[in-house]
Design goal:
single chain; 303 residues; alpha/beta; TIM Barrel; 8-stranded parallel barrel; two-stranded antiparallel sheet; 10 helices; 12 strands; 41% helix; globular
Length: 303
């Protein structure tokens, strides 16, 4: 796809930036970025933050107060230009595609699906503008008290296949996430068994799987086909005093980021990683991301 050529050139030119700070670290061979709106929704502020850490990758979700898929294309092109100026490449475009309740097989359900197909079209247009072939998607959600059935999963697999066919030329990276039919490593592995389309893979989020009660590393991860992991989210979590899971700064929780990263790299994983902080600091989200990123860079140094 020719629209990646410009980005590839930018990647080469980025080596002239203060990236030399990282050459002695595994990070020089690890494509690590941050979800920009967990720094700031102002793209320029987020880009400058990334470069201060010597990072040259970013995951794009919300920009200037709106999800990227609802921003007009002139704003997307403006964001892309700012990232170019700061030598930042977009690792993956975050979307809310299929992060909705599974529509019923009714006329109303078809209307809901039609809206999702429109969202996918918007996502592909924006991914192309950002110079990435990866689009983060989901596996539908269910409400509290509902119990997923085999029939639900069969329908989801068929819809994911249809999405992959519609997204020819792009890679759909389905994220396992709470309150979704695809929440754990085991459920992700089952999805991949049924959806053979090569352009559908995973945004593997071991912390989401851990928050769901799975021993995501090594148990959940061991069930996955690493070749179909297109992207990885990193952060940390712990159990609160009430026993509920809460996000926290990297290094202050129970997830073993070091072992997970080592296992991925040992398996030959060469795709992108994103710090998706989620932890809410009273000092604000930039402070939260700054704190977690510094801790994550120490982890990476040990890899």
């Amino acid at each position: 796809m020719s629209f990646f050529t410009r980005r590839e050139a930018l990647a080469a030119s980025a080596l002239a930036f203060p990236f030399h700070r990282l050459l002695a670290l595994p990070l020089a061979q690890m494509k690590l970025g941050v979800t920009t709106d967990e720094i700031d929704e102002d793209v320029t502020i987020a880009a400058k933050f990334l470069r201060e850490f010597g990072l040259s990758w970013a995951e794009i979700r919300n920009v200037w107060g709106k999800y990227n898929t609802v921003q007009p294309m002139e704003k997307i092109r403006e964001a892309s230009s700012i990232l170019d100026q700061h030598k930042i490449r977009v690792s993956i475009e975050g979307t809310g595609f299929f992060k909705v309740p599974l529509p019923p097989e009714t006329a109303e359900g078809q209307k809901a699906l039609d809206e999702q197909w429109k969202l996918l079209d918007a996502a592909m247009e924006r991914a192309k503008a950002f110079g990435t072939d990866k689009i983060r998607i989901f596996g539908f959600t269910y409400r509290a008290g509902e119990t997923p059935t085999p029939k639900d999963y069969a329908r989801i697999y068929e819809l994911e296949k249809e999405a992959a066919r519609k997204a020819k030329g792009f890679r759909l990276a389905l994220e396992n996430v709470g309150s979704s039919y695809i929440e754990t490593g085991a459920q992700s592995a089952e999805l991949l068994k049924h959806v053979k389309e090569s352009n559908l893979g995973l945004t593997w989020d071991p912390n989401n799987a851990g928050a769901a009660g799975e021993k995501s590393y090594p148990d959940g991860y061991s069930k996955l086909d690493v070749a179909r992991i297109f992207h990885v989210h990193l952060r940390d979590y712990k159990k609160g005093a009430d026993g509920k899971i809460e996000w926290c700064a990297v290094g202050e929780g129970e997830f073993d980021n070091l072992s997970q990263i080592r296992a991925l790299l040992k398996s030959g994983y060469k795709e992108t990683f994103t710090l998706e902080t989620h932890w809410k600091s009273p000092k604000g989200k930039m402070h939260a991301t700054d704190t977690s990123l510094k801790a994550l860079l120490k982890v990476v140094k040990e890899v």
